[in-house]
Amino acid sequence: MSSDPTTTTSVLASTALSAERFETLAERVTASGTERIHVSAPATDSEFASVPACDEGDVDAAVERARAAQSAWADRSPADRAAVVDRFGDLVLERRDELLDLTQLETGKARRTAAEELLDVPMSCTYYADTGPSLLGEERRRGAFPGVTSARVSYDPVGVVGVVSPWNYPLTLAVTDAIPALVAGNAVVLKPDEKTPFVALALAELLEEAGLPDGVLEVVTGSGPVAGPALIDRVDSVAFTGSTETGRSVAERAGRNLIDCSLELGGNNPLVVLDDADVEEAARGAVVACFTNAGQLCLSAERVYVVEPLYDAFLDAFVGATRRLSLGTEFDYRADVGSLIDASQLDRVEAHLTDAVETGASVVTGGRHRPDVGPFCFEPTVLTDVDPDSTVACEETFGPVASVTAVPDAAAAVAAANDSPYGLNASVWTADRERGRAVARRLECGTVCVNDAYLSGWAAIDAPMGGYGDSGLGRRHGPEGLRRFLDSKTIATSRVGPVAFPSGGATKWALGAAFGLFGLQRRLRRWRR
Ligand code: NAD
């Protein structure tokens, strides 16, 4: 990594950001020590600013501040809390230029991808501002003894929610879980990835401007292995997004602390092209599925299965469309594909590719590191003849590498797609949407997009999103995405005083009557069906 001031100045000159702006943002973090985390721009591999490295004590203090602020926040009406979140959505749209600059600077991604993630924030705000309050009201449920007892359910915020977010979509993933948590009346302590703290701090600033009281959202910047466990040990619920490996350790820790956790983890997502698909459309979709954000998207497709009659035509179209993609790191909308995040991500992509080739794969297009474009830029790559036991076939590459495999029929495509410990997202291409949905039902994953790569699933904010198997636990989006941050309370009331069987000689008689009534009620229920 370079700390050459000329390189840093040149990357900052492409944006409207200044060194003073980073200082202002970093000052939002309260830390007792002097240790710093240096943040660099993947486009030039140069440091541009630093944030405090929070230790366990700093995390403790942040959670205490959040806890102190939470009850007054929870006392405000749900509509009032929703209005703050709604205003935040407006501010994100208004300040989009700076947020896009920050996102691109920290991640090296193409601006069009940054714009896509930015749009997700006001979408989440709209959804939870509109639906959140109605999800929080008291509900009547069926009582134990009709006419005699009643049951009502009310919902309380869990308290302080810890959000741990990754670097790949640092703008939306910093707040997509925080938004429903806040509407539900919780306080939030957010720990963004060390590589992308500034966009999270800028969002925290906008939440404050939108009217969020002091302390209700705290940001701690620190290394994952230090700040992460410290956070999980102090909060009442965790929403984690990141790798499956770290997710397991988060779940273990949450389990020991007996707190709830939702885990949005990795994937090795399949894309299936059925024999009736429009090949050109499927190829365009596959390019989006495989190469958006240089493949550093949890929903990215990495394994493409094509039913045999279409294999050659699809491969031609897919390779042609892949070759037309432009690679770049400019702070404008010219590039289709941007940089990988850092040297370790580049190493991972190269290692997976080397293993694929050594185990028999052919590189049909791409396959090269492009330091002439950016230090971590890598060409969108299409492989064929991939060994099903190779690393690229079995593990998440999280880079711009897709393998294409011919399969005899739809059943074989489903079997190959399901042959993975992951189950996050899948994509199915067909001329017959009903057939597509039938195939989708047989795929073992949390979202399946028919005739789309991932966006129609991700952006269906009213519908739950999450993973099967090693791709995670719990769901974000939809009512499920808010209810995970609530404790439910059942209040049962008797109209007749204590509900109990009489004692003494009447017990046998009363129990007999109860068994008889209960049996009659069960029979009537069946008869009414
Ligand atoms: P990572 O697990 O290394 O890091 C994610 C976050 O966890 C960071 O904030 C990091 O600082 C923190 N962390 C690290 N060690 C920790 C620990 N011991 N305890 C608590 N927190 C800790 O993830 P990554 O590799 O940087 O991110 C990419 C991964 O995230 C990919 O596998 C990708 O598929 C996954 N991801 C999943 C989704 C989803 O919605 N399912 C979305 C985006 C990314």
From TrEMBL:
It comes from the Archaea. Keywords: Membrane, Oxidoreductase, Transmembrane, Transmembrane helix. InterPro entries: Ald_DH/histidinol_DH (IPR016161), Ald_DH_C (IPR016163), Ald_DH_CS_GLU (IPR029510), Ald_DH_N (IPR016162), Aldehyde_DH_dom (IPR015590). It holds the Pfam family Aldedh. The active site is at E264. One of its GO terms (molecular function) is oxidoreductase activity, acting on the aldehyde or oxo group of donors, NAD or NADP as acceptor. Residues 32-491 form the Aldehyde dehydrogenase domain. The chain crosses the membrane at residues 499-520. Belongs to the aldehyde dehydrogenase family. Homotetramer. This is Succinate-semialdehyde dehydrogenase / glutarate-semialdehyde dehydrogenase.
